[in-house]
Design brief:
With about 475 residues, this protein is an alpha/beta fold. It has helices spanning about 60-70, 90-100, 120-125, 130-135, 140-155, 170-185, 205-225, 230-240, 260, 275-290, 295-305, 310-315, 330-335, 350-355, 370-375, 385-390, 400-405, 425-430, 450-455, 455-465; strands at about 10-15, 20-30, 40-50, 70-75, 100-105, 165-170, 190-195, 250, 255, 410-415, 440-445. The protein contains 20 helices and eleven strands. A hairpin with a 5-residue loop joins strand 8 and strand 9. It comes from Achaetomium macrosporum.
């Protein structure tokens, strides 16, 4: 792997937040293409958090410098395509600070405040092939180069033994962590993973064949808990189909189709997800009962469940996270259309006709389909680039180095969820077997979002893996 140049720190602003958090807002400059530094640059945004203390007497300068050089723990968010939340709203912040870290929340390139991807910036690159080449620069291989560049920048004045840092990868953040572990292990002190053991040996098609099975199980659990929704969901689908053009204008400018409605099962993979979908279904049905149409407020609530316009990387590069030396070719769409539970992918109206009124219509999960791009005002402007990416086999450098993972010497601690709807458990086991020295806690007691909804339990399990010796 080619050496990385340190990022350039552009600005640093410090604040004290309620709750005794000292937060420093940082902007960095990194190459747009690390292999071609002359091709321009991107900005990265991050927040560094440490404890703010009010001493009886002022700290001496040496003590302040010592606090600024506490070991870093870098949180890597899921996605792809999402920036970080405010540090005070992340449970990890308190846990990590209490254990003596300072925490860095760095928005990946293209997300949050890090030169975010949008239709205007993508179209400005030129014709669709140039747009696609630009979007290829926002995968995990570029992300880890950014991380290593920022590490070199922030730790340049640290003692030699303190220059490494720890990373904590949730979901896609775990995928990024494994790429980092493959490429720049010398920069890492330790790695924590939650729901992030990427299926590194599996194609996108294999991934979706596995995850659809779990989505079907979650649908069955949903309709078992809310059997009245079998009729309600069918009624909502029928209403949407009955509208002019079989679609309804959404507040942000896109269109609600029956197919789009049936993709809100993404929430099924988290704690409380069944209830979340039911609440939305109930709201839509109540609109039809009271007004005979879907209100703006309800449409906006539904729209928020499909955040692709505001997080375009999630839609356009989602299948690319599984691509090493192959193309995805809209794998989720191809696999889903071959399953009897998802015949609506081809034609929602026909799915209503060929099934009885007592049969449930299943929701899809973490899958992205061509109609997501076509029906979204922001994404549809990038349609041609999305098509190119779906059919490309040329991704540049491989995301993972399996030989490096086999000889890994960096401590790795992972929590893996048996009932994970997004990261297949058996594939996660397969990956864990490749990483030398990894310690894994496997559980069927939590779902994929447990790092947020069951945070205290998850952190306790992870640090128990780190702190307890087996022998």
């Amino acid at each position: 792997m080619a050496a990385v140049q340190a990022a350039r720190l552009l600005s640093r602003r410090a604040h004290v937040l309620p709750g005794q958090l000292h937060v420093t807002e940082l902007f960095f400059e990194v190459p747009k293409n690390h292999a071609k530094p002359e091709a321009g640059s991107l900005k990265l945004f991050g927040r560094c958090v440490r404890k703010h203390e009010r001493p009886i007497a002022p700290f001496p300068t040496s003590e302040l410098e010592k606090k600024e050089k506490l070991p870093y723990l870098v949180y890597l968010e899921g996605g792809p395509g999402f920036g970080n939340r405010e540090p005070k709203n992340v449970a990890l912040t308190r846990v990590a600070l209490d254990r003596g870290y300072q925490v860095l929340y760095l928005d990946y390139r293209g997300t949050g405040l890090s030169t975010p991807i949008n239709a205007h910036s993508v179209l400005a690159q030129g014709e669709p092939p140039e747009q696609a080449n630009y979007l290829k620069l926002f995968r995990a291989d570029s992300i880890v180069r950014d991380l290593e560049a920022v590490r070199l920048c922030l730790t340049k004045d640290f003692d030699e033994g303190a220059k490494t840092w720890s990373i904590f990868g949730q979901s896609f953040g775990g995928f990024v962590s494994l790429t980092y572990l493959s490429k720049y292990p010398h920069g890492l002190r330790e790695v924590f993973l939650t729901g992030g053991l990427a299926p590194i040996r599996r194609s996108a098609e294999e991934v979706y064949r596995a995850t659809y099975r779990k989505v079907i199980e979650r649908n069955q659990a949903y309709y078992k808990k809310y059997p009245e929704d079998i009729a309600t969901v069918r009624r909502i689908v029928q209403y949407i189909i009955s509208q002019p053009g079989s679609r309804i204008k959404l507040p942000a400018g896109g269109y609600l189709t029956a197919q789009l409605f049936l993709t809100i099962g993404l929430a099924f993979g988290g704690h409380g997800g069944l209830d979340e979908v039911h609440s939305l279904v109930l709201r839509l049905a109540t609109d039809l009962d009271q007004f005979g149409f879907l209100t703006r407020a309800s449409l906006a609530a539904l729209e928020s469940q499909i955040p692709f316009d505001t997080h375009p990387i999630y839609a356009i590069l989602h299948e690319a996270i599984y691509c090493r030396r192959h193309h995805s070719n809209w794998a989720a769409y191809r696999v889903g259309r071959g399953l009897p539970e998802f015949t609506w992918l081809a034609d929602a109206e026909s799915a209503l006709v060929v099934t009885s009124d007592s049969e449930p219509l299943y929701f899809s999960g973490e899958m992205v389909y061509p109609f997501h791009v076509a029906d979204s005002p922001e994404l549809k402007r990038m349609t041609e680039a999305a098509k190119i990416l779906a059919h490309t086999r040329e991704w540049g450098e491989d995301l993972y180095d399996e030989e490096q993972l086999r000889r890994n010497e960096v401590p790795v601690y992972a929590v893996s969820y048996i009932d994970d709807m997004y990261v297949d458990f058996e594939f996660a086991r397969e990956t864990a077997a490749l990483v030398k020295g990894i310690k894994v806690r496997e559980t069927n007691g939590w779902y994929h979002d447990a790092v947020r909804s069951k945070s205290e339990e998850v952190f306790a399990a992870l640090f128990k893996l780190r702190d307890d010796e087996i022998d």
